[in-house]
């Protein structure tokens, strides 16, 4: 299941975070990071998916 989330995180980072943690603070942080730059959004999303179990 993590592989699917990582694929979503590369295509659309907030979706990957949403699938992992829902509409929490990490989701909104990822929205902001993705708006500021696509790469920071991807890095944050993959970090959240790898860290939160």
Automatic annotation (TrEMBL):
It is found in: Membrane. This is YqaE/Pmp3 family membrane protein. The keyword Transmembrane helix applies. It comes from the Bacteria. The keyword Lipoprotein does not apply. Keywords: Membrane, Transmembrane, Transmembrane helix. Its main location: membrane.
């Amino acid at each position: 299941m993590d592989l699917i989330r990582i694929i979503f995180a590369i295509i659309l980072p907030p979706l990957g975070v949403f699938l992992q943690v829902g509409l929490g603070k990490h989701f909104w942080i990822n929205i902001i990071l993705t708006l500021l730059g696509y790469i920071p959004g991807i890095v944050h999303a993959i970090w959240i998916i790898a860290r939160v179990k």
